[in-house]
Amino acid sequence: MADLILRDLVKRFDKAEVLRSINLEVHDGEFVVFVGPSGCGKSTTLRLIAGLDDVTSGTVEIAGRVVNNLEPKDRDIAMVFQNYAIYPHMTVRRNISFGLKSSKASRAEKTRRIEEVAAILGMTNLLDRKPAQLSGGQRQRVAIGRAMVRDPAVFLFDEPLSNLDAQLRTQMRLEIKKLHQRVGSTIIFVTHDQVEAMTMADRIVIMKDGRIQQVGTPADVYHSPANMFVAQFIGAPSMNLIPGAVAHDHGVTLASGQSLHFDRALPQGRNVTLGIRPEDLSPDTPDAIVEGQVTVREPLGHETLIYVGTPSGDLIAKADGRTPPEVGASVRLGALSQNIHVFDADTGEALL
Amino acid sequence: MAVVDEVEIKASSDTLLRGGSARGPRNTGQIIRFLLLFAGGILMVMPIAYMISTSLKWPHEVYNLNFIPDEPTIENYTYVLEDGRFYGWFVNSILIATITTVCNVIFDSLVGYTLCKFRFPGRYIVFIAILSTLMIPTEMLVIPWYIMSQQFGWLDTYWGILFPGLMTAFGTFLMKQFFETVPDDFIEAARIDGLNELQIWWTVAMPLVKPALAALAIFVFLGNWTAFIWPLIVTNSVGMYTLPVGLSSFGDEADVAWELIMTGAAISTIPTLIVFLIFQRFIIRGVVMAGLKG
Predict the structure, then answer these.
(1) Which of A22, A263, B105, B287 matches a 20 to 30 Å C-alpha distance to B198?
(2) CA B258/CA B53 separation, integer angstroms
(3) A237 cis-preceded (ω within 30 degrees of 0)
């Protein structure tokens, strides 16, 4: 277990700069999830940490030593790949023991560790099977086992659940989280699924276009997004965005002419975008912000998502599951001012 | 009981007429396809059958084109097997075909793997250069090979026979293409697990391309087993002959002993059959795996 520090990490492929000055400190035993859309640089960052690609500039530091020039095997890391990368011609036992190839431990010690890992992952009875005889979830466990058996300083997971079906993904998510609680290792987990990020991470690193957009706990990034990208990327359905302008220190005027008052001061004359999460936008609030007509209803049982056409664009709100407004009905949507985020319309940065 | 038997016989003959299925008569397209395949099969088997037929004939009967010998004999087999030279040629051929096969499997796959899995400047040029040698016919290469052998003192030696075939452009190309199908994740996982590049190639990559290795082994073994021109040119002494060269020397200035050549040829097909039987399961498994890969 160890700290992992990335300093001014830059990666270029020919002229394309895919990572731009990444700075991050991951603490010992922390579970950090890198999340972002395809091409944001999250997997590239992982590959640089693993040593599978060379760093263009900057440093990768693991347990206090710069590992830029070390081979992957010498970095004290283990990686679980998206397509498992377990060798089809070897049994589960050989696949797991493969992680100990470079270990100087005695044969008896190796056997003990393999069996211990198999027991933790519930695979003791599968040790003599070949990967073709295993289900997707079992294969993923073998891949995790191969990583675990090395007892590395840092575990790297590169979208390991994306090939599993929804049910198995949920199950494996839980298992990985339990595993982390049990072994307490430092884990870097890459995913494009924000639900995975929210449910598993101690801290989430949200990336876009090769830059870190925000680092924080799941609650931080959800409730206090640093910019409009984070606000829209985290949370499903996405946050509603409503254009407006700062009329005076504490007031924002919407396109509809409606004025909103905020307790905190805002830069005067600036164009802003208000962000309101669907669960904070309710048809039952007395202080309405916008009015519109329900165009679509999505019943989810305990609640219903309603899509409302308004002068400020289409908005999504959550209504009661039992008595939601009918399609075509006029609704007045409102939100408490403490639940409204204010972003600079030009830079996208959060103002409130 | 007799009635039951009759019904069963009728049912089975109906099934046979329908081509072994209950789906009804086969359509014309299928019949044409089977006829074409049958004709192809006959064409392939004919020379082999004629070879065996000739090997069972007496010398005076060789030029009769009948398939079944009038007086079949195994005298030719006894003669060939008792002729000490035949064993020498057989051993030479086995040795040369085996060594070249092993070398091709190792060197072609090493080069193919390197060209496929490593990024280095000039990689593409090297690959094109190797491929371009496929366009040069062996007949053109024989003279430089001979001059080289002469200058290095390799004439009439095993090394002289072997060296041109130790690596082939075709094999390199074949292996490179197959290594493309091995996901990079396997290689990278092994790198993280602490294997060096040679270990990764041998332990991880090679077992994953077994079907290609089997195909390459068959091609190279057969190619070298039947090679004639180069062994004929590079060898001088009868003891260094390979089987095809040795067999061609049966007979004298006045006559060619076709019955003995055919006998030797019949015996010499045995190792090629063994090689094919050993490796064919890998090829079939490879085809099946490719079909199931999802």
Answers:
(1) B287
(2) 11
(3) yes
In 3D space, the residue among A69, A79, A68 whose CA is nearest the CA of residue A7 turns out to be A68
Domain A4-233 in this protein, CATH class: alpha beta
Reported confidence tier of residue A236, pLDDT bands at 50, 70, 90: confident
Pull the structure tokens for residue B31. 């019949």
Domain boundaries defined on chain B = 80-292
Of the candidate ranges A336-340, B112-116, B278-282, the one whose mean pLDDT is the lowest: B278-282
Tokens for A114, please give them.
Answer: 């393999």
Question: Which residues, 6+ apart, have CB-to-CB distance to B13 below 8 Å?
Answer: none
Measure in Å the smallest separation between the Cα of B186 and chain A Cα atoms: 5
The answer to whether residues B80 and B263 touch, using CB atoms and an 8 Å cutoff, is yes
Nearest to A325 by CA among A284, A279, A268, A270: A284
**Residue ranges covered by each domain of chain A:** 4-233, 240-344
Question: Does B152 contact A at CB distance below 8 Å?
Answer: no
- What is the second-level CATH architecture of the domain A240-344? Beta Barrel (2.40)
A33-54 burial code (b ≥16 CB/10 A, e <16): bbbbeeebbbbbbbbbbbbbbe
Question: What residue of B is the nearest CA neighbor of A143?
Answer: B189
Is A53 touching B (CB cutoff 8 A)? no
Secondary structure (DSSP) of B153-176 = T-TTSHHHHHGGGSS-HHHHHHHH
Q: Closest by alpha carbon to B80, among B280, B258, B292, B202?
A: B258
- Radius of gyration of chain A from Cα atoms? 24
Could you tell me the fold of the domain covering B80-292? MetI-like fold (1.10.3720)
Helix (H) or strand (E) holding A59: strand A57-62
CA-closest candidate to residue A232, choices A241, A223, A224: A241
Question: Tokens 């560790």 belong to which residue?
Answer: A113
**Mutate: best of A43, A70, A73, A162, partner B, most B CBs <10 A:** A73
Helix (H) or strand (E) holding B120: none
Supply A61's token pair: 């530091």
DSSP H/E element including A142: helix A136-148
Binary contact (B191, A72; C-beta < 8 A): yes
d(CA B282, CA A325): 65
Task: Give B183's contacts (C-beta < 8 A, 6+ positions apart).
Answer: A83, A85
Nearest alpha-carbon partner for A149 in A100, A182, A184: A100
Terminal-to-terminal C-alpha distance of chain B? 52
- Proportion of chain B above pLDDT 70, given as a percent: 86
**pLDDT tens per residue across span B10-58:** 444 444 444 444 455 568 889 999 999 999 999 999 999 999 999 999 9
Q: Which of A267-271, B101-105, B202-206 has the lowest mean pLDDT?
A: A267-271
Q: How confident is the model at residue A121 (pLDDT cuts 50, 70, 90)?
A: confident
Tokens matching residue B81: 């097997």
pLDDT digits (tens, 9 = 90+) for A180-227: 988 888 999 999 999 999 999 999 999 999 999 999 999 999 999 999
Query: pLDDT: is A43 or B249 the higher one?
Result: A43
C-alpha span between A89 and A22 (Å, rounded): 39
